[in-house]
Amino acid sequence: MLKFLLKNRSPIFLALILFFCAWIFYHRYARPFRPAGSAKNMSLSVWQPIQTAVDWVITFPENTLNAIQELSHLRQEVIRLQQENQSLRLDLSTQKSTESELDRLKDVLQIKKTMPGAAKIARIIAHDPSTWNKSFVIDMGSDDGAQIDSPVISEEGIVGRIIEVTPKYSRVLLIIDPDSGVGAIDERSKVTGVVAGTGRNRLKYNYVDAQDDVKPGDAIVSSGLGGIFPKGYALGTILTRTEADNGLNTDIEMVPAVDFAVLDYVFVLQPINVFQ
Fold first, then answer.
1. Which of 94, 183, 189, 205 is geometrically suited to a Cys-Cys bond with 252, CB 3.0 to 4.6 A?
2. How far is CA 254 from CA 133, 200, 226, in A?
3. HSE on the CB side for 235, CA within 13 Å?
4. More confident residue, 93 or 226
């Protein structure tokens, strides 16, 4: 008998495994559990660990595949939520920008009430890349009444004048451009001169004699002379005054009244002959 078992141990072992699997399958799927104490339930309790191991081996690939699919779904959901979050952030940023623009426009409309009746609001839409901060384009053209040499101002003071006009747009030459010049007067001492651009955020007060009473801190406004800019609009403040060694010439530097770096809206006036 022993020799028979040893000789046929492999088939016998395989048969036992098949028997155990058949036993587990029968009791799990073909037969309901019976009340505690029955022989079959006691037998099943004995073989429960084996059944658990076999179940794990059978279900492991399926569980792994389900886990991989679930992970893929989670990654897709994360990507979707990230895209939705970016979209919401963009919408919020756009809303804040729009609200800020509306608030700024309300302020500009309030400022317009203090301007001459003929003043029209224009928005800066582009800076000339070849002369940065020396000229810009506004969304107002001849269809809206813009003309060559129309003065352009802000609530702070004189900005420049229109030098090119199309039906829808106009180009404004700023007073800080070297080609710009504005007849001016010192509000304190009444000394007259010409404010000229330097190509940077500074101005020069030219044609002032060495003996004239012009001091740092003096406010300089437009004099109305020259036929372009109306009288009494701010141009800037005297920053420094340097005398030449010969005592005849003087170099006067000014800070513009207008902060061109933050300028967004301007007011276009009709040419000065309207004011005369």
1. 205
2. 17, 11, 20
3. 37
4. 226
Q: Could you report the per-residue pLDDT of 149-193, keeping only the tens digit for each?
A: 999 999 899 999 999 999 999 999 999 999 999 999 999 999 999
CA within 13 Å, CB half, 136: 24
Please check the confidence at residue 42 and state whether its pLDDT lies above 90: no
Distance CA 65, CA 162 (A): 72
Q: How far apart are CA 31 and CA 26, in angstroms?
A: 6
Q: Is the dihedral of CA 178, 180, 186, 190 positive or negative?
A: positive
More confident residue, 42 or 11: 11
Report the candidate in 153, 162, 147 with the shortest Cα–Cα distance to residue 112: 153
Q: Return the domain boundaries, the chain.
A: 120-274
CA distance 147 to 151: 9
Q: Find the DSSP H helices in the chain.
A: 2-7, 9-25, 39-46, 48-112
Are 253 and 236 in contact by the 8 Å Cβ rule? The answer is no
Could you identify the residue written with the tokens 């504005």?
182
CA pair distance 220, 210, nearest whole angstrom: 17
CA-angle at 228, arms to 227 and 229, nearest 5°: 115
Query: The tokens 């928005």 sit on which residue?
Result: 123
Could you give the dihedral angle defined by the CA atoms of residues 144, 131, 263 and 196, in that order, rounded to the nearest 10 degrees?
-90
